Structure formats: C-alpha cells, structure tokens
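Re: the request from the purification team.
They wanted to know what the chain is likely to look like in 3D before they choose a buffer screen. I agreed to run a prediction and write the result into the notebook, where they can find it.
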Amino acid sequence: MEKNNKKIMGTFDIDTVEKLAKIVNENSLSEITLDNDGVKVTIKAKIPPVAPMPPIMPLPSFAPAPNAPSVPAQPVANNNNAVSASKGTAVKAPIVGTFYAAASPNAKPFVSKGQHIKKGDIIYIIESMKVMNEVKSEVDGVVSEICVSNGDPVEFDQTVMYVE
C-alpha cells in the first residue's frame, strides 16, 4: 500500500472506497462489492439498532355505572349457530382493534366461559396500531359468555363478553 497515492489493495484508492460507502448509504443498500482484476472490495452498511417494542398499555374496560338500569342482552349467535340469551354485565371493547383471548397463539386464554374473575384481572388483549393493549376487568363475577373469537376485529363499545 502506498500512502502518498492513497492506494489500497491494488487498484482501489481511498476516494473510490469513500464513494462506494456514500453510494451504499444514499441508496439504502446493505452492501456493495467491486471486483477489479481479482481484487475485491466489499462495503457493508451499518445496521441500525432495533428499537425496543413499546410496553403493553393496559386499558380499562367499560362497565355500567353503579345503580344504572340493566339492559336486557340481545341474542348472540355462538359457534354452533344457536342463539343464546346472555345475562350479566356487558364487557365492551374500549377501542377499535383485533381481539386476542391470549398473550400468544400457543398460550392459554386469559379467561374462559364459567371462569370466576376479579376486578383488575386481565381478561383479553386488543391490538390497535400494532400496540397490544391489555384490558382488565372492572367487575368481579363469572364469565357467562364470550361473544367474539380470537383474532376477530372489534369496534369501539362492541360487547366482547358478559360477566354475571
């Protein structure tokens, strides 16, 4: 290598390598390789560090105000296409998103029909804008019906389940 002529590895000079690095950065390339008479130079881009995922933000579920008159539930079709009358307090979706009954596809659901829950228990997750939002129970009771399936889209104020 000759320092005066800025030559490196045969026919490549520092200016050429710097130009290659600039091309990689300006064009969002992962790497570029140049071969000149059997001498190869490869320039690889720096990979930016992966940003950590934002924490799961718990959202409260909406429950009727104390002493509010109860509204009879509408019949809801279940998986067997049979119509059943629901009883209890309606637990509604606090935001628009996708309903998930468990923390991951292979995990056990947070709640199931007939399960006793306490105020503050995580009962499901709604994914909205790629953020997983834990929804906690506002009431104590027994889950009498789950009205949506895992992965279903839910609307704001849609009844997700009933708790007696």
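For the purification team: The two ends are 82 Å apart (CA to CA).
Please add any questions underneath this entry.
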